[in-house]
Amino acid sequence: MMAQRILSIDYKSFRFQIFMCFSILFFLTSCGKEDIVQDQDPNDDLYRIPVVVHVIHKGEVIGEGYNLSEERILGQIETLNEDYRRKEGTRGFNDHPDGADTKIEFVLAKSTPDGQPTNGIVRINSTLVDNPIPPNHRFDYLAFYSYWDYEHYLNIWVDPLQPLAIDIVLGFGTGPNTDLPGNDLFSPGEPTQAEGVIINSFHFGESGIQSDYNLGRTLTHEVGHYLGLLHLWGNGDCATNDYCEDTPPVTSHNTGCPSNPPLACNGEPALVENYMDYNADNCMNMFTNDQVARMHYVLKNSVARKSLLDSPGLNKP
Ligand SMILES: [Zn+2]
């Protein structure tokens, strides 16, 4: 089972009520500056982030079991880009007045840290590796199998969890280190632990599993954390939430696909279609302008994020 310190920061399942309580206690100890970050980007240039997908499997041939097919991996990255670019004609599109194109794109790495050509996918047969890291230290445990320079790649681990973990453990993301309010609510990355995003293999990309989370939106959510977004409910208090003024303040998450959204603290409908809630994959389609401003601030000010933008991994060797 997963480490409490990880679960306390980011999971999408309502089933871990006890961990939720822990999270709220943890969050209540935090304090932050006032809203909000203004995006001062003078141009519309795209932010391009190189990605490496580490498929940790159990010895299956490619395309079977935990050794996911290349098609599924490519489809997942495509979904990620559709969501971040609010692409018309896809599930990631919305016409909400507060909805925004993040101008962030994700590119499977074209060169390795050693300057070799790559397709951005690493496959590790975990049954052949004696891993000394305790499995509940999940980021470090998976990083022992495979981990690329975190300052130049977004590391995504596809975690071969048991079927029992479906809908219970979806994914985790480490947060960036900045002076943004709410910085202390994130699961830390380096040097505390390996930095990146973990996705339960069953929830990675589109799959046939019986689940509200079978369309690959878990990665959209976790990368949101990686780029500096908090859950819409922040620390669970109406007054201090996610530090985005265009997401109505709420005290808790939603699940499923509510046709009549519950009301937020200010009487507006809760933004249940936002990626930083826990709703079903087929109900999500939105980042807001203020969320985008936070992500852009992170990409300009976090040491381990801005270095991604001129990574050699973006180019062929
Ligand atoms: Zn989350």
Polypeptide structure, described:
- The protein is α/β, with parallel strands linked by helices and 317 residues long.
- The protein has a single domain (4-30, 39-243, 287-314), classed as Collagenase (Catalytic Domain), CATH 3.40.390.
- The chain is 21% helix and 11% strand.
- Strands 1, 2, 3, 4, 5 and 6 form a 6-stranded mixed β-sheet that branches.
- The radius of gyration is 18 Å and the shape is globular.
- Residues 1-11 and 13-37 have low confidence and may be disordered.
- The structure holds zinc ion.
- Please report the first level of CATH classification, the CATH class: Alpha Beta
Give the SSE string: HHEHEEHEEEHHH
Mean pLDDT: 88
Taking the alpha carbons of the first and last residues, their distance comes to 40 Å
Give the % helix: 10-25%
Q: What attributes does this structure have?
A:
alpha/beta; Collagenase (Catalytic Domain); 6 strands; 21% helix; binds zinc ion; six-stranded mixed sheet
Topology record:
Elements: H1 4-7, H2 17-28, E1 47-57, H3 70-84, E2 104-108, E3 121-125, H4 138-145, E4 154-159, E5 171-173, E6 197-200, H5 217-226, H6 289-301, H7 303-306
Parallel strand pairs: 1-2, 1-3, 1-4, 4-6
Antiparallel strand pairs: 5-6
Bound molecules: zinc ion.
Zinc ion binds next to helix 5.
